[in-house]
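Example (one chain per record):
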Amino acid sequence: MHFHSNIKLLRKRRNKTQDDLAVVLDMKRSTLSGYENKVAEPGMEVLLQFATYFNMAVDTLLRVDLSTLSESQLYQLENGDDVFLRGGNLRILASTVDSSNEENIELVSEKARAGYTNGFADPEYISELPVFSLPFLSKEKKYRTFQLNGDSMLPIPDKAFVTGEFVQDWSGIVTGEACVVLTLNDGIVFKVVENKMAGEGKLTLYSLNPMYEPFDVRVQDIREVWKFVHFISQELPEPVLPENELVRTVAGLKQDVQRIKNSIYGK
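Predicted structure:
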């Protein structure tokens, strides 16, 4: 539980002494000191007092180590963009930066997929992932690369590396976009997304390969969403097809994409 260190950090960020905050919360300074120094444990009424004053959810004060967050994340929290309160605007993201304080692109290889499902929110685990950078991507956004496993998104091949842009506000996910989604039960999946969060509290996920059926993921079972940016494949392109066969192949791909669109939009 991070309550004790969190309230001390937040108090100092507001330039308040223990005396100042004790007066505001109508408690003795010694009581507040006891909470900050982990000598005393707060009851629910006290937790609600602190949550109201700092404009954060009790869950955030208890479960999130605020000292590990970036300045921008703390600023968002302090201005009301709390995932536990608002249901979607802020996602706590473990990340790494290079020597110039620029965001790295962490690489989640096929071997790291299982570990990532459990360690995605652990800064120590994320710091051990390989990192790289791509100069043509925006420095204002956060990216991560995941290695695919399987053929559900053909023609993007098995073992390709898919880079995604971190999505903080899931309500803004556009139906028809491809996303890497970290799920509670299915781990890392790469799918075309239908956003049903507003009405039904879920995403419906579609494969490009027609052999795979779509399935739903409830919002409470989603951990991260990364919007597709590009992919890199180690496979060489197939030999040039004869003109007629090429036409048939392109037509088949168009039909696959149209089938998914029709399924999403109910046409």
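Caption: Confidence is low (pLDDT under 50) at residues 85-90.
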